[in-house]
Amino acid sequence: METCEKWWKEGEGQLMYQAFYRAYRPQTFGDMSGQEHVRRTLQNALLQSKTTHAYLFSGPRGTGKTSAAKIFAKALNCAGAPSAEPCNQCASCLGIMDGSDTDVIEFDAASNSRVEEIRDIIEKVRFAPSNSRYKVYIIDEVHMLSNSAFNALLKTLEEPPSHVVFILATTEPHKLPPTIISRCQRFDFKPLSRADLTGRMEQVLDDVGAGYDVQALKVIARAAAGGMRDALSMLDQAVSFGGDGVSLEDAVMVTGSIGEELFRDIGLALAEKDAAGALSILDRLVSEGKDVVRLTEDLVTFFRDLLVMKAAPDMPDLYELVSDPELVSGLSERLAENRLYAFIDILSETRQDMRFSNHARVYLEAALLRMIQADGGPAPAGKPAEGPEADELQLKVARLEQTVLDLQKMLREGTAGQGIAPAAAQPAVPQRRPAPKSKNGFNIQEGRIKDILSRATKDDIRAIKSNWAAVLGGMQKSQSALLNDAEPVAASGNAFVLKFKYAIHCGMAAGNPDFMASLSRLLTEKTGNAYEAVFVPEEDWLRIRETFIREHGLAKPQEKDGQTEDGRDPDEAAAEEALGLLGESGAFEKDPIIEEAEKLFGKQAVHVHDD
Fold first, then answer.
1. Is the domain defined by 194-255 classed in CATH 3.30.460.10?
2. How confident is the model at residue 86 (pLDDT cuts 50, 70, 90)?
3. Of 26, 111, 322, 438, which cross-links 442 as Cys (Cβ 3.0–4.6 Å)?
């Protein structure tokens, strides 16, 4: 502590108090907590005289970036150089410590971000230092400089005079241009560990002669989140609050944290599924001014500690919030691992939702209720149903099983009766051919289209076409635009084929549920009949129509300029030819399997579907 500034300073005839984070700022590399990789690299460079012209110190707030820059500046200009530490006794070191050395310039880019301030630096860079070996520019919060300022600094930063060293410090290095970063030696400062923070606070309290509770220092270290400046500021406040020393209650009150007992009480309420108890604890904490978001994060940490306690009970150093394992050991045994995982998932999801709402308390209340109901796994299987309903259900299952067996038997007998190889040589269930796809990946219901063609009627297609303009007029413009190049080409009593000129429009229409619902509703209103729309691109429709005509021995209508010789639409002519053939023969010769299926399930349930 000899190298730290005094806690009290003389000022205008009276003692002036200094905050801990200022009074105990490190004055040598040895005083710095953590950052071993930074200290060793800089000290080796000093000893070997391998210092460079530009450095970039980046990292979270309060991790020692500016302090390291000042220590490095003192070591560069120290009378005892080259050395790994400044002596803090020569005129140069003392001048840098009290801010009177004009050769070490601290520049705050947050309040001097314009290009004019940077140009002033550039003009003065060429002048030699007045008293020291190096002129050192420490530019803090360098990411706040404007683009023009960065551009102005670029050339000087790359090739400054030999007597100049730039040290840039920032908490947001991603905002710096790559051209700036590439011209510097970069050092990333890491958040300080809780052990480093606690050790430094113990040194400070020992130096000022204040008593303390180690658990209180751990609470402050956890709240500081890796920042030494934050830790010392809260420690300063806790000393003022407690008077004689720092107790656990003082630390909890100052940091806004929650006592370990309250976390245990919340966990017990959740374990016992006591919603009233959990919500009452939350209400009390909110009324005391506790931050709901902070509470949510601490609950995640608490349940994480319980998981660690289950998995590694012999490693208490891994606990982040739990300081007394005996206090929560009973709760850890009562809560199963799957419930703890569920608690953490629910709280993490709630923490994300809180970012977009002003009602954080409501979200946490809902999370507590969800956690009470959460079992951490699938619901346990219930007991088998009993009574008349169970008997009826079993009867239905038996009937379905018998139906499947009958169908399989008829399938074997039907194929054998048609002169095909015996059933023993055939697979019980034939493999389905995958449905063909258009060029844009749209699944074409070819079997469904052929089914519509086999049942098509002139009255249905004419009813749809005569009302088609009214249907388009009733749709939204964004929906009707998809139908500009679409046309109904065949229809049966309950379905119709809608041909699209472009496959992409066909896919967009088929993938839009609102479009499908609107088209079906308007068609029903205009025609008085509910038609199911089956979409198909034009090129696929022509192929399917050609195949259908060939398979059923229909004469293909001769087309000229998009019409048949008698002036009819080729699609309508094909449908009429199919209808004519059906009228003459009565119906297509049915497969005996299909006839048996119709007897079992009824004709209305028989459709051809492609997966």
1. no
2. very high
3. 438
